[in-house]
Amino acid sequence: MARARKTLALLINNLEGYYLEPIWQGVLKACQTNRVDLHVFEGRVIESSVRNEGQHNIVYSMSGSELYDGYIISAGTLAHTLNQGAYEGFMKQFSGRPVVTLQRPSSGANSITIDSHASLKALTLHLILDHRRKNLVYIAGPVDNSDNQIREQAVRDALELALGPETSLPVLPGGFREPEGRRAMERLLESGVPFDGIVFFNDSLAQGGMAYLLEHGFNLPRDVSIIGFDNIASSQALVPSLTTAHQPLEEMGAEAVSLLVEGFDNPGAESTPRQIVLDSIPVFRQSCGCLGSFSSRSVVNIQVIQDFWKRLLSEVDDCISRGRREDIPSRVYSALAEEIALGRSVAPYQDIGQVIAKRLDEQLRKDTAPAAPEKEINNYELGLHVQMVHGAVMTAGESMDKRRFVHLVSNFRHVILEELYDLRIKSLFETLPGVLQNLGIQGCAVAFYETGVIRSPARGVAVPPDRAVWKFCYWNGSTVPLGSEGLTFPMNRIVPPGVGDPSGRIAGESESLLIQPLFHGNEHFGIVVFSLSMTDDLLFEGLRAQMSSVIKGSQVFEAKERTERRLRDTLDELKQKNQDLRSLSIRDELTGLYNRRGFIELGESHLHRAQLLDQWICVFYIDLDGLKAINDRYGHDEGDRAIVSAGDLLTRAFRSQDIVARYGGDEFTVLTSETDSKTAEVLVTRLKSTLAEFNNQNNLPYRLSLSIGFVSRRMNSPDHIESLLRKADSRMYTDKSKNSK
Description:
Elements: E1 7-12, H1 20-34, E2 37-42, E3 70-73, H2 75-78, H3 84-91, E4 99-102, E5 110-115, H4 117-130, E6 136-139, H5 146-163, E7 171-172, H6 178-191, E8 197-200, H7 203-215, E9 225-227, H8 233-237, E10 244-246, H9 249-265, E11 275-279, E12 281-283, H10 295-321, H11 328-341, H12 352-366, H13 379-396, H14 402-417, H15 425-439, E13 443-449, E14 454-455, E15 467-475, E16 478-479, E17 487-490, E18 512-520, E19 523-531, H16 537-565, H17 571-583, H18 596-613, E20 616-624, H19 627-634, H20 636-653, E21 659-664, E22 667-673, H21 677-697, E23 706-714, H22 721-739
Parallel strand pairs: 1-2, 1-3, 2-18, 3-4, 4-5, 5-11, 6-7, 6-8, 8-9
Antiparallel strand pairs: 10-12, 13-15, 13-19, 14-19, 15-16, 15-17, 18-19, 20-22, 20-23, 21-22
Helix pairs in contact: 1-9, 4-5, 6-7, 10-11, 10-12, 11-13, 12-13, 13-14, 13-16, 16-17, 19-20, 20-21
């Protein structure tokens, strides 16, 4: 007798990336093989320090449903920031249900982990015994990462076994990404520690470290043997290719499904949680010293990579200067396709989307003329588009059907730049079927919360309401009619109308869904559900983000329309709405302070009023010292936090009626009324005291420092804000020279 369809829920913190992509694809393939439905809840890392990432995590609260017969949780990635107590607290919502955790065990749940100790120990012994390396160094991952602790211990165990228990192992801080590998090598060379072999926590660190050593005259692997871990796609493309360890991530995802299906088929079997450990596999390549030396090719390879970045960024700058940013993805495609045609790998450019988005942000900060909002392209979304281009090239390689690929790229660009810029939800839903068909997405459904917009708290994650309303559904080539009011459903049973209820169907071809939240800032509107296939993952996040922007824009637009209809009776309300809309253009997004435009406009108004009243005016010009050093050493996220902290200090030190602004980059300006020179000195003293208190109370790896200049004058004759700013700026540099001594 055929059994009723089973449905699994997968909680994962991203669909993209060398680590997570094989996991969900392994789960998806196994579900299709076993004819099991799959619902994927894509959030982000719990308690992530990255700005606004936590907004995605409302989706995890939607997975606690009787609809699901079992859960697979990528706990090692989405919960790696939680201590054990907090982690077990998170897992309580799944107690009493069949659960498999990946890469982090939990009490009462099945778990699958990958043993990295044995393979890394074997690789380290290989360096010592086969390549005669005696002076090894370990470049660590994050200190609190359990995998980092296991891998460091594996290297220590190999050293003890081969060279004796007294053998020391220098350990240098690293991290996760390529730039951190370069910084680790810089510190290693400065330290003077002798080394002839380096074991890196992962391949990305190793890639950055190898590039740095080659640039500084090292012959790899003759002078230094290198080992990484993870076997990411670019590790084989490096010259010399990287010796590493392969993690069976896809097999881990498939094994999780098999474990749950086995329980379905044998309901009376023993229910004791199982702990399955898979072996990682050593992969021997050139960087350790196997298969000969490739030093001459190494230099050429690094030069080729550097030349590629130089050419591509020049093309990006050209598009920006001509006001044709929409041409960037096509330029990227041409550059990558040329590398393929020359027989070169494009794997080293895996972060291309992030690099170009950062370049666009840098150019935007330099541009003093604000662009019209309806023409402005979100740099994050364009970066996602570029990343999709790279992913398609990476996947298809020389076998790519260029005409099909160009068709896909042009359609996606059309979606981002034209079709989805309509600010009405009705128009969005009318446009989406054609967009989805062109992009090859088989299904998409949108639901809004029945209670309307909900907002996440200042700390923590928003809680979804109990019910929502399906407003749009396109499935298997046709739009599903929902009526004028839509279809209401409970949030513990997220099944789009075009799919049907899994509990009432018999096993056949499985249905796989991706569930994502729709939000803008801290405002949550509802969810979007996509039909998930193996080839679509690079499209979903771009569409989700753009739909959220359209919904937010539509809400603003419709609010304006409602206000206009009540114009005669509610003129004051209309003015407030317009002021709210205008404030969006005069506020700095990062700090919430006024921006340059807001400061100039409000400042000129205050100057005019002070002249009429014959009052004193004071303009302060304040610079955040050492921001570039903070960015270079601790990363741009930390630099952003320093900027926000500086803005908060200014808000606390000055009065509520004063105009405080982030003028640009690391520069702040303040305008105060009825402030002569003596009063200004009092304000400067108060600011310095507030700054000292902040540095004493916050255990930061650097001290926040501000350089301050001001000019105070009585407005008994006309003057302009720009003139006062120049004078204050000049005096600020005098203060900066004192601070630098």
